[in-house]
Specification:
The chain is 65% helix and 13% strand. With 297 residues, it is of the alpha+beta class.
Length: 297
Amino acid sequence: MRFLIVKHFKYFMGLTLLVLFIGVISIFTRGFNMGIDFTGGSIVDLTFENEVTVSQVRDVLSQHGMGNSIIQLENSTNNEKSKSVLIRTGLVEDDQLRAAVSDMQGALGNYQINRMENIGATIGEELIEQAAMAVVLSWLLMIVYITYRFEFNFAVAAVAALVIDVFVTISYFSFFQMELDSSFVAALLTVVGFSINGTVVIFDRIRENLKLHRRSEGLEELVETSIWQCMTRTVYTESTALFAVLVIFLYGGATIHNFMFAMLVGFASGGYTSICLAGPMWIKMRERKNNKPAAAN
């Protein structure tokens, strides 16, 4: 006996609204932890006599409160050690930065300073606006495509699910105060693409089943059947994607940690909205259009 997803839609929607409410409160009270790309900072280019690792450099910076700095190894053959290191820090005092760089000599050996300068925000408000426009444009284009491929009600339900996925991902970053950088924008767009794929698969099954649907029969059973017909495919796709993202999140290093966290949250939310919300929301849209409720099971 299978669990009835559509029948329990109000509970799924209630849970979703609770998460969204917590997200709104967090955004307005805690805000976001903007990274170097948004706020500006300093850049230091060093060449050491001996090869060093990212963790060695980060250990020294952490002693001066700069453990969240972006550290890149240049001209590295094995991606683990290099003599050339590029460091990007947040907004810090010149004395603090110079003290950290000075301590590297005792900890990591002699080095040469190729560059040390302050930098402005590389993204700022302009790129934030462009990123928001890119996400909104993707929603609009998906509405056009899904309306052409299916119908307008499908498009609205699919984009509503996408909006939830994006907002949940943003809310997590606000709640846990994880740093937002340029990779976060790429992660959001990836989440949008991944989430819509799962939703469209279920909607395609609903459309196929509609061809055999009798008007006297209720839509709830049709959608329930369609969701479970796609369940094996959805679970396999979601689990393999989440497994890969989780492994990279845990072992991929600090540089891509926030990027993979956004993917992890977004993919999980995408699977949830595709299975539990998108189909039932389509029923609600269709009910309003026909101005009558779907027949109960």
